Amino acid sequence: MIPQRHGGNLRDIIPLCTRREGEIRDFSVNTHPYGPHPAAAAAARAALEHMDRYPDASSVPLAEAVAAAHGLTLAHVVPGNGAAELIDLLPRALDMHRAVVVSPTFGEYADAVCRGGGRVIELVRPPEAPLPVAALLQCITRERPDAVFLCSPNNPTGERLPDAALHAVLGACAAAGTVLVLDEAFVEYDPLGSRINLVTELTNLVVLRSLTKFFGLAGLRVGYLAAAPALARRVNRVRPPWAVNGPAAAAAVACVGDGEYVQREQRRMAQERQVFAGKLEQTGLTPLPSDANFLLCRLPDGVSADTLYPALAEDGFLIRHCGSFGLGNAYIRLRVHRPEVNELLLERLRKHLATSLHPLATP
User: Rounded CA gap, 92 and 233, in Å?
Assistant: First the structure.
């Protein structure tokens, strides 16, 4: 089996099952299981009435809404066609010849650097281990890279980057003339919150944000970054015009400052994540602690993701094989879905794990 590059590719399992696309239960993506933010959905629908008009070329209304939501100025903010577009722009914008990535993490960082003609310096850690801060600081000091990419909460492991580690890395980056790119695509799920306000104090920090995940806008493609004005200007120079379409911009403006919604849904998902993790443990999986809406799970000895993936696909469940994260067959990543959908997956997991671990005892 070829490991997935990204989740959410329902076509991956259509040949493996008899279900129609609308009947597939997708645990491979990390979007909010309760759908898009209601006001965002309404704003997008209203904006479709004006689909014959060009959107704002620089997405200024969206940038203004982001700046107001985070206490920034317009000069700090660059909207984009999802955080993925901004990741792709950064190597060109910041002239990245060498960049450090700590794996396992989101694969687009390394891919973007390579597409831009740069070289990736990869540090690898076991998924259960914390960020190797000492090794990372030594690498920054020795290599003096143009950039370091970190993710908090990290994808696929789910843990928040501790404050002490963040400030140590920022200090080393400042001394080496290195930009730290901090991806906060899942930060709304983290009760300790964002570090985005640090961009008002630091000239070597870029913070990436996504409206895809928590606000349920994956199909619209919208995100933004925040950075010191000098860094933001460099990104804007390579950003294409009309990057954010009209419905996406309208949806983002409608939800980006809704702190009440964030607090309510954050609490709900934290409770559901805890319940789901406990039940996964009872099936024999080992879910790692997570501050996001997904769980990286180590499979029991004798169970392979290569066999579990197609077995669940046949039942209409799409999970995230973690081979593309460099984790081989020993791990899967599962979205925290709605409780009733989680229960359906748990039922099938129990069946398939029993078959794998006790084949002679299963009819």
Answer: 13
